[in-house]
Amino acid sequence: MAAEPIVVIRELTKSYLQGDLNVIALNGVSLDIQSGEFVVLMGPSGSGKSTLLHIIAGIDRPTSGSAMIQGINIANLNESQLADWRNQNVGFVFQSFNLIPVLTAAENVELPLLLTDLSAAERRKQVATALELVGLADRGHHRPDQLSGGQQQRAAIARALVTDPALIVADEPTGNLDAKSAGDVLAILQSLSRDAGKTVIMVTHDPKSAAYGSRSLHLEKGEITA
Amino acid sequence: MTLASFVVKNALRNRRRALLTVVSVAISCGLLVTLLTLQRELTIPPESEAASLRIIARNKVSLAQPLPAKQLSIIEKIPGVVAASPFTYYGGLFREETFTSFAQFAVDPPRFRNLIVEGRVSEGSYDDFINDRTSCFVGADTMKRYGLKIGDRMRFTGTFYPVDLDLKIVAVYQGTVDDRGVFFHHKLLDELMGNPGTVGTWYLRVASAQASNEVIARVNDAFANTSAEVRAETERAFQMGFISMLGNVKLLIGSVSTVVVFTLMLVTVSTMSMAVRERFRELAVLKALGFRRRELFSFILAESFGLALVGGALGIFGAWALWTGIDLQKLTSGFLLYFEVTPRIMATGGVVAVFLGIFSSISPSIAVARLSVVQGLKTLD
Prior knowledge:
The complex is a heterodimer. In chain A, 32% of the residues lie in helices and 27% in strands. Chain A is of the alpha/beta class. A six-stranded mixed sheet of chain A has the order 6-7-8-3-9-10. In chain A, strands 2-1-4-5 form a four-stranded antiparallel sheet. In chain A, strand 4 (64-69) and strand 5 (72-73) form a beta hairpin. In chain A, helix 4 (120-133) crosses helix 5 (149-161) and helix 5 runs parallel beside helix 6 (179-194). In chain B, helix 2 packs across helix 9 (235-245), helix 2 packs antiparallel against helix 10 and helix 2 (15-47) crosses helix 12. Chain B folds into two domains: 3-46 and 247-378, no CATH class; 61-228, no CATH class. In chain B, strand 8 (153-157) and strand 9 (165-174) form a beta hairpin. Chain A binds chain B through residues 54, 57, 59-60, 79-80, 83-84, 86-88, 92, 94-96, 98, 100-103, 107, 110-112, 114-115, 120, 159, and chain B through 1-3, 6, 9-10, 12-13, 281-282, 285-293, 295, 372-374, 377, 380-381.
């Protein structure tokens, strides 16, 4: 028997007003993603790929349709419930890393754990494991401005991993990186999907990056075309 | 890392701005405390409880017009009057001074004894003052200021009165609202002036503050339609009259204090708004990571509260240390007597700092509450 998909999207629409203009970002998108998949969302600018990613990650709300993640329709959660849900179930990787500049790499990784009941020792242990996993074990005490772009993105991945979420969303994670660092980051994401069973959803423009995924979806004008 | 250390690191991320904010809050709070202390200093006499028990009766025409000495026997018979003494301002210059830096009054020593209720004789003997017509009874602050001791002589050059005084210090008092005055025998002044049979004012004491209005009316009535009508009022009202000559001091200082607090509020609100606005993207990231509105609000509140509190504490305790450490009485030639930064004034400054901390976090918190994660992330990319 096939396992229940971790992400079940049905007839999802998202529209918003831009001045007087009603912009349709997503137009009746339906989609299933199995646990452990590495799904790449591709498409031109304005195609709705980032909007879809944001709704799946629980940082944006659909206009209509349903977004069931791990059996929960996140559109029905209130803001506080959604925040808790994100903390426990989603790891974020952004294009511009978004590390807090006044904190060290280890402290940045520790941030999501401050919302949990873990003791300081347990938090330190999980932070060390996450940093180890991305190859930054010896860089934990460095601030972001003391790390290269690739190292910063790896620290961001460690932050995304540290709460052991089922879902990792990455929005153009290699957009600000050189080819070598981009390769390293993509390899880590691939490994998380393939070896650790994490579901990874990544938005990218780059076909080379898309090659690391197990499945690619193309969006255009708010609809999945392929 | 703890949430507290996270807040501290955020507050200190722009050290120059944090320092400037703390300094501006400190200076403003220090200024506020100084103004409140000045206001208290200028209104101490009217706030003295004993001052409401004493009545000063002066010539109804003007304070400069004398009253007949024979009025005393009538005043002493008025029901409710416990004690009465002539009280004539001499206004002489001490030593080589060019202005009168402390008051000298001619009194009737035996009667005057019953008028001072809150002070005590700290050195010498009041009986010596009564028995020696050329002696004087001096406030402890004046003794200290001029390095005087019992037995020393005080020489005054008359300004209002065309006679000079040469007085021997025989007793010292302290514990009154103003421990600077010098009191001497009215008889001496009378003799030197050729016994004109007049006094400057009458100084009375009533049994209770409740009785004072009735006694005032009786004193005024007693001399109504005479050649020397009097105007009696409580010492509190009399001194308020002097203060009112400076204008509405309370309103003036209150207005300046309000402006200080308002300016302070603008500074802290502006600082916190800037600090939060430039961190919109980080706050959006924190929201994405699972931090809720109330946690972000706590961060902002703690940060602005911390800056305001540190600045407030520095300003309040700085003002306290400054005004406690400086001999303002000497520096202002006796104009400012105590200039005491009281716990109440410090607490007022503290309340203002706390209010600022809370108030300045409201606007940024609302902005953060309204911030959607997607919008916040868009501001960065």
